[in-house]
Amino acid sequence: MDNATLKERILELVPNAEYQENKQFPTFIIPPDKMHDLALKLKQEADLAFDFLFCLTAVDRIEFFEVVYHLESTQLKHQLELKVRTANRENVAVDTVCDVWRTAEFHEREAYDLMGITFNNHPDLRRIFLDENWKGHPLRKDYVDEVNIIER
Amino acid sequence: MKEVINPPVRNIEDEEYHINIGPQHPSTHGVLRMVVSIQGETVKSLKPHCGYIHRGIEKMCEKDTYQQIIHLTDRMDYLSAHINNHVVCLLVERALEVAVPERVQYIRTIVDELTRIASHQLWWGCFGMDMGGQTCLLYGMRDREKIMDIFEESFGSRLLHSYYTPGGLMGDIHPNFQKRVKEFITYFRKKIHDYDNILTGNVIMQERTKGVGILTKEEAIDYGVTGPIGRASGFSCDVRKYHPYGVYDKVDFKEILGTQGDTFSRYMMRMHEMRESMKILEQLIDNIPAGDYSAKMKAVIKLPAGEYYQRVEAARGELGVYVVSDGNKTPYRMKFRSSSFSNLSALDHMSRGFKIADLIAIGGSLDYVIPDIDR
Q1: Which residues sit opposite B49 in a β-bridge?
Q2: Which of A9, A83, B27, B361 has most Cβ atoms within 10 angstroms of its Cβ?
């Protein structure tokens, strides 16, 4: 499917999705409450067939956080980038997609550990790299660690 | 007389209990702890505990320039250091729309393939040792040494080279480079037969690996398992074929797919890959065009504001890098999608229902590099 058709198709599924100009992938900002339904449709519908989630990450945008999903269809070879924005820095819950793509389980745990995004309905949301008693989430821009981070 | 109290009779077969494999255990190939829930000898479930060598590379990248980041990427998957360098270089070059000299692309492709062979040689040795064959490790190390020598002569170091820079290479290849690579191919074409004779055809090894740790194609895609492991399950995921970089679109090589998805199939994939890599080397080594070893780059690299994603095929699978730039000389956010991290997530599913000894074989066939998981 070419990018123009893909754009129409996504806007048909989620009418209030916001299209973002990006040279590489067609990019959409999806409202948080629509993400899980869209994920199911993206995987199941035959003309979309996005079965491979090759990257999931989170970005600190100061006013809010952004969870970024990179998707590819292994049969149709088209790619897609989706973003979900949290309301603010305090309410950081996003629905999990690890029931749709199981690879998300580890990636969401990483996003929780390092960026502090909580994923609703995640089966095992624990820190993955850092100690359970660790305070704060290091990849946040306001994270302060006077001992281990040297400011230059 | 004291009354003898007999302890209650325990049926160990029915009891489920937990054992720790690692963090310091030869079969984890690094510092990885696996909490395995077992019943008798059978694995019921497995929980990997990572992070023992988490260094916060992504956070460090936010303070470093793109030239400095190259040196950090070496330290993720140290066995495919060049390929890790490549992904950052490609990303910077694409963002700045720099045309890289053809000579650079040829050399990078050759060095990437040498790295892949060296990585698979070490894997073969370690896998053999996991299966109880000490000889394999010595053979694998011996042949990998030949590649390390070639690297040392041209790039000045053996493991962490940081040879690629955005726009080109640190320096030109040594005059002996082509000769020595050709000597290596002749040498290794003979030696890889020994590999087959020692391990591939070994009955014990085949008994222990065939039908063990099965991952179907759908599961491989679902878990994001790529590289030789994904291809062993029939998941056609070679980035070199689908999103070519370097000169992979100019060379003739096959993406070999397996059908079984078991440990033996994963073993065979890497054996085939070493042969395919030698085929690529043979096509390129005599045709390196003359020219500069680097494009003209500014001393301070600033990527235009925006988001970039670059994928390459590392020795263990797909390596991706996602960069959010705000136009400064350091990235705003840098994320590495490492192959071992996704591959490890499937280990629990693959090892369920098999014995502990099988778990070691499955782990060996996954070929995870712990610094790549933890970053």
Answers
A1: B33
A2: B361
Would you call A59 and B337 a contact, using CB atoms and an 8 Å cutoff? no
In angstroms, the CA B252 to CA B280 distance is: 7
pLDDT(A151) > 90: no
Whether residue B293 is contained in a domain is answered as yes
CA distance B346 to B130: 20
Whether residue B82 is contained in a domain is answered as yes
- What CATH number has the domain bearing residue A108? 3.30.460.80
A142 located within any domain: no
Q: Touching check for A51 and chain B: CB below 8 Å? A: yes
User: DSSP assignment of B132-145, as one string?
Assistant: T-HHHHHHHHHHHH
Query: Taking all residues of chain A, what is their mean pLDDT, rounded to a whole number?
Result: 86
pLDDT score recorded for residue B13:
65
Within-domain flag for A129: no
Q: Does B64 touch chain A (CB under 8 A)?
A: no
Mean of pLDDT values over B167-196: 89
ipTM entry = 0.89
What is the 3 state secondary structure string of A21-36?
Answer: CCCCCCEEEECHHHHH
A134 occurs within a structural domain:
no
Per CB-CB distance under 8 Å, the chain A contacts of B221 are 51-52, 74
The answer to whether residue A146 is domain-embedded is no
Quick check: A55 and B320 CB within 8 A? yes
DSSP B20-82: EE-SEEGGGTEE-EEEEEEETTEEEEEEEE--TT---HHHHHTTS-HHHHHHHHTTTSGGGHH
Domain that holds residue B69: 54-374
Domains contained in chain B, number: 1
pLDDT tens track for B309-358: 999 999 888 999 999 998 888 999 999 998 889 899 888 898 888 988 88
Are the C-beta atoms of A119 and A96 separated by less than 8 Å?
yes
- CATH code at position B144: 1.10.645.10
Over its C-alpha atoms, chain A yields an Rg (Å, rounded) of 16
Range of the domain at A92: 3-120
Chain A residues with CB-CB distance to B322 below 8 A: 55, 57, 68, 70
* The total number of structural domains that make up chain A: 1
Q: Evaluate whether residue B19 is within a structural domain.
A: no
Alpha helices for B285-346 (secondary structure H)? 339-345
> What is the residue-wise DSSP string for B183-221?
HHHHHHHHHHHHHIIIIIT-HHHHHHHTTSS---HHHHH
Classify residue B11: in a domain, yes or no. no
